[in-house]
Amino acid sequence: MNIRDSEIMAQKLAEAGYLETSVLEDASLILLNTCSVRGKAEQKVFSMLGSLRKLKAENPDLKICVAGCVAQQEGQKIIDRMEHVNLVIGTQHIYNIPELLERSTNNKTAINLSDSYEIPKYIPQVSGHPAPAPQISDSQQFQFSRFVTIMQGCNNFCTYCVVPYTRGREVSRKATDIVNEIQTLIEAGVVEITLLGQNVNSYGCTNPVTHGALPYSFPDLLAEVSSISGLQRLRFTTSHPKDLSERLIECFDQIDNLCPQIHLPVQSGSDRILKRMNRKYCISDYLEKVDLLKAIRPDIAITTDIIVGFPGETEEDFQQTLELLERVRYHGSFSFKYSDRPETRAADLDGKLSEAEKGRRLQEFQKRQDEISLERNREYVGYQKSILVENNSEGKMMGRTVTNHIVHVEQAPDHIVPGSLVTAEIIHAGRHSLKGAIPPSRI
Ligand code: SF4
C-alpha cells in the first residue's frame, strides 16, 4: 500500500512540475512516506529525519515532508520534535500533496494541517479520482507490473494493528474506476496487475458496490478485471483468512490469468492467541481453506505473516505455530517479533515477553521456514516455468514465475526485453530465489 501511495504522490508531484533526483543534496523537496506497522519502521523515520537536519541547515530552502502512517499517527508531534520538517500529511491527503506543499512556505517551518490527522469520511480516489498515468517515475525500473488500489482502510481491529487508526475504516473504490485505471495501464504496456487493499476479500462489503442492479463482490471484480484484453497476469493482496470465501477460492480454478499465489496471513498457530489478537478465525477453519486452495489449485504458492511473542504467548502456543508451519509448508513467510503500537489494545495486554525470548522464538521459526522454503523451491528444479522479465542487462536477467518466485538467468540473450514472457528451465534452487536457463529451443 505504501509503494502505491508513493507512486501516486510521485505522479502528482511530476504533474506539478517536480523532477526526480537520486542525489539527496540536489533535492529541493525530500518526502518520506512512512510506515508505523512495527516499532522499528517508525524508529527509522525519526533516525532518517535526524540525519536530514544537517542538509536543511546547509540549504534552508529545502522542504522536508513526512507522509504515511507515522505522519497520520504522530501529526503535530513530528513538527514539535523535528523543527526542520515543513509539512506533515496524513494518509488520506496524498492526492493533495502539491497544494499542501504550496501552503508550506519556506520561512514557515511548522505547518499545522489539523485536518490531515482526522480519519476522513471518504477516500478521494473513491469519489471518481482520475486514473493515474502509468509512467510516473524514472526510479521505477519495472513498469510492466503495477499495483492498483481497490479499497483502503480496515474494519477488523486486530488488537496489535494500527491500520484502522492510521488509514481509517474500510472503503471500496467504484468498480468502473478500477477497471478504467487498469485499462489505461494495459494500454500503456502493463501486463501484470496486483489488486491492492488491506483486506481485498471484503471488497464491496462495507460500502456496497453495485454493477447495474446487482451487488458486486471481490470475485466479480476479479472476473471482470481478468477479462480485460492484454492482461497477462492478475494477483491480489492481502486476504484476511476469515473472509476468504469458497467462491473466491474457486476463482483460482476458473480464471486463467489469476496467478496461483496467495498471501494468507495467519499470525499465530494457536487458537488462544488468535482470540487475543481478535483475528476471528480458528486454526481448523484456516486449514480447511488452505486444503481447499491446494485441492483446487495444487500448484498454488501460499505465503503468510507470523507474529512471535504476542503478549501471553506460551511456549506451547509457539510450538503450535511451528506445527502449523509443518502442516501448511508455506513457500515463504514474513515473520516479526511483536512490538507495542500506540492506541492498540494489545499494548495494554498483560504477559509481555522479553526481547530475548521473542528473539529466540523468531530465530527458531525463521530457521525452520528457511529450510522449508528451500525444500519447496527445490520442487521446481528440472521444470520449465514462464517468467515475466523484470530486467535484462549484460547477460543477467531477472523475472518472476506465476507463483511469484524470483528467477535469475545468466547469459540471457540481449533481445529479451523487460515485460516479455519467456520460458526458463529451473536449474538450481536457493532459499529466496531460483536459477534458470533458457532452453535453446525457446530463444
Ligand atoms: S485485518 Fe487486522 S492486521 Fe490486517 S490491516 Fe486490518 S486490523 Fe490490521
What descriptors fit this protein?
single chain, 443 residues, alpha/beta, Rossmann fold, Transcription Regulator spoIIAA, 4 domains, five-stranded mixed beta barrel, three-stranded parallel sheet, 33% helix, globular, binds iron/sulfur cluster
Task: Draw up the topology in text.
Layout: H1 2-15, E1 29-34, H2 39-51, H3 53-58, E2 63-68, H4 69-74, H5 76-81, E3 87-88, H6 97-103, E4 145-149, E5 151-152, H7 163-166, E6 171-172, H8 175-187, E7 192-196, E8 209-211, E9 214-216, H9 218-226, E10 233-237, H10 246-254, E11 261-263, H11 271-277, H12 283-296, E12 301-308, H13 315-328, E13 332-337, H14 355-378, E14 384-393, E15 396-400, E16 406-410, E17 421-429, E18 434-437
Parallel strand pairs: 1-2, 2-3, 4-7, 7-10, 11-12, 12-13, 16-18
Antiparallel strand pairs: 5-6, 8-9, 14-15, 14-17, 15-16, 17-18
Helix pairs in contact: 10-12, 13-14
